[in-house]
Backbone:
């Protein structure tokens, strides 16, 4: 028995380890990009569930290589969710699920086969999440304008964890958080912010209203997770500024979408030119104290939208042709923020530059939107002229001018050494320093406004002249989610997965060689190992 003792010990140890790991499985993610690891925020949310989570994957059928990769990544994500929660995968009977009844639009894939024929496949890149009788749709495919098919698929895989966690977060919410859109200063009406309110209503209860009155409660904004100040045209009173400042000091989050200059688009269309002057909203000292300054100027950019211009000299026979309008820059998005990561260009008009100020103030500042590599700045006072369609390109010397930033940290009050303004009702002393919170500052109100066509609201970022849809809607919604994200879920959008693609041309040209190597190599390795074992055994037993 003694000679078998080591073997018995090893077998017993193996069985013990197997029993422990079976009850409490251990997982190691050895990938460089931590492809198979969930964030702590996701784990916390999953562990807090107290009922099964049903997942139905609709992505099925005869898929091409790209969609098979997306399906495999989705299944791996679902499997990882099941480690921390009771996840039940329901068989996705795609043909029995009516996409139209669920509001799901299929994707039509057109591919050319090797024989030259074109094949057409309809796929539903969605998953259904059910929890306690409630259901949410997870969109698996992100289709961002300007990215290639491979880049869009990779971005989709990067955001799978966020997509599932966002849906689960909505399903597990006990009450709907509230955000407020400020009124009372000439802001756009409900019709011109309809698309924004519609997009936010998926996550929040959206209220609108003014805070100005003869006597204002200093805590009037405390019930809201975020305050949206969208394109005001008239100045704020001292009491309003104080209430906004103290709201921030108590941890409130603010989205500022402010114009830096004042102009008349009606005069521009009628006369062909309009003067531009600084727009004084009374907010400069607040923003300066928080770490940014919106300059009273306009940026022009070679990368811009076209507008229809009548090039005919005959008034009775107009001839409208698209001409580049440098005052409508197509803004670039930063990959360094979860708000703008993997997003396309943003449509805008009459945008002002932003400067970061404050130095070492402890505020983390990130650029969200910027101009292209060929920009110039028009200072005020000045004018905008429709005849300025062919400017001197040598004057466009500026690169990546920031026009939107995010701020995160502990802010200092602009009223730290001032008195409580008259008309504010409060029994508390002024908070000179705040608690950690977030702000987003956008130097143009055009980014958050939707146009109207036949009294119907168009989507934010939709250019009706070119028919192109830009990323305004997604970015503004992401900004509000980032402002209100106490759980840290929005940070999941920063996840990076390396894009490792095959060289299609080489794979086709060396197809036979690759097949032979793939087929023969395993057999050759096994034969080599067998030969080595045979030689070792032969030498051992010959002695």
Residues:
């Amino acid at each position: 028995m003694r000679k078998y003792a080591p073997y018995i010990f090893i077998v017993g140890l193996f069985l013990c380890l197997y029993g422990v790991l079976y009850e409490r499985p251990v997982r190691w993610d050895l990938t460089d990009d931590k492809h198979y690891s969930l964030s702590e925020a996701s784990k916390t949310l999953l562990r807090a569930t107290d009922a099964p989570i049903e997942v139905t994957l609709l992505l099925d059928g005869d898929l091409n290589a790209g969609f098979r990769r997306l399906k495999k990544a989705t299944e791996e994500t679902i499997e990882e969710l099941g480690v921390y929660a009771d996840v039940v995968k329901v068989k996705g009977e795609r043909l029995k699920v009516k996409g139209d009844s669920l509001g799901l639009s299929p994707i039509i894939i057109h591919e050319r086969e090797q024989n030259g024929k074109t094949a057409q496949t309809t796929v539903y890149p969605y998953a259904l999440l059910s929890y306690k009788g409630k259901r949410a749709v997870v969109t698996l495919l992100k289709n961002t304008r300007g990215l290639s098919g491979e880049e869009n698929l990779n971005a989709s895989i990067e955001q799978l964890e966020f997509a599932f966690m966002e849906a689960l977060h909505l399903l597990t919410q006990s009450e709907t958080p509230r955000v407020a859109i400020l009124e009372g200063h000439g802001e756009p009406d409900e019709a011109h912010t309809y698309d924004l309110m519609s997009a936010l209503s998926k996550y929040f209860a959206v209220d609108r209203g003014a805070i100005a009155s003869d006597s204002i409660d200093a805590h009037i904004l405390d019930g809201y997770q975020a305050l949206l100040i969208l394109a005001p045209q008239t100045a704020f009173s001292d009491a309003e500024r104080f209430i906004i400042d103290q709201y921030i000091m108590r941890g409130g989050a603010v989205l500022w979408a402010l114009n830096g200059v004042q102009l008349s688009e009606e005069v521009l269309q009628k006369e062909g030119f309009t003067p531009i002057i600084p727009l004084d909203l009374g907010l400069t000292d607040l923003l300066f104290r928080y770490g940014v300054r919106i300059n009273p100027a306009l940026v022009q950019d070679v990368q811009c939208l076209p507008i229809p211009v009548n090039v005919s000299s005959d008034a009775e026979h107009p001839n409208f042709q698209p001409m580049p309008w440098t005052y409508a820059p197509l803004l670039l998005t930063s990959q360094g923020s979860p708000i703008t990561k993997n997003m396309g260009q943003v449509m805008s008009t009459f945008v002002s530059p932003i400067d970061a100020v404050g130095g070492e103030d402890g505020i983390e500042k990130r650029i969200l939107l910027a101009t292209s590599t060929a920009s110039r700045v028009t200072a005020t006072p000045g004018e905008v002229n429709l005849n300025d369609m062919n400017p001197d390109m040598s004057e466009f010397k500026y690169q990546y001018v920031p026009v939107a930033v995010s701020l995160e940290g502990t802010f200092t009050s602009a009223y730290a050494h001032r008195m409580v303004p008259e008309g504010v009702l409060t029994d508390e002393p002024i908070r000179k320093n705040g608690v950690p919170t977030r702000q987003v500052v956008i130097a143009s109100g055009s980014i958050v406004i939707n146009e109207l066509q036949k009294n119907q609201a168009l989507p934010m970022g939709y250019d009706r002249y070119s028919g192109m849809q830009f990323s305004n809607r997604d970015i503004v919604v992401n900004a509000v989610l980032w402002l209100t994200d106490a759980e840290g879920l929005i940070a999941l959008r920063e996840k990076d997965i390396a894009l490792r693609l095959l060289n299609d041309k080489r794979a086709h040209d060396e197809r036979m060689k690759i097949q032979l190597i793939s087929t023969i190599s395993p057999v050759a390795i096994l034969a080599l190992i067998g030969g080595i074992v045979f030689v070792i055994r032969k030498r051992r037993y010959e002695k």
